[in-house]
Automatic annotation (TrEMBL):
Catalytic activity: O-phospho-L-threonyl-[protein] + H2O = L-threonyl-[protein] + phosphate; O-phospho-L-seryl-[protein] + H2O = L-seryl-[protein] + phosphate
Source organism per UniProt: Brassica napus (Rape)
EC number: 3.1.3.16
Keyword flag Metal-binding: yes
InterPro entries, alphabetized: PPTC7
Keywords on record: Hydrolase, Magnesium, Manganese, Metal-binding, Protein phosphatase
Family: Belongs to the PP2C family.
Tree of life domain: Eukaryota
GO MF annotation list: metal ion binding; protein serine/threonine phosphatase activity
Cofactor: Mg(2+); Mn(2+)
This protein's name: Protein phosphatase
Amino acid sequence: MLEEVSVLNIGNVGDCGLKLLSDVSQIIFSTTPQEYYFDCPYQLSSQGPAQTYQDASVNIYKGDVIVMGSYGGFFR
């Protein structure tokens, strides 16, 4: 979520992911997949206790590129 000018707030769950690339194609920030073990990612659920998610706030600038993916294919 872009809450303020040039600040991107990120919430990440399981094997979804996000990479932030600078205008010169360098990786500035990358989330880490969250799995119990291979092919068993954390998930949101209304059953039982909530599972951990990763929070981050990252400064972004004109020309930066946000790449997002889901279902494990993004990091593998």
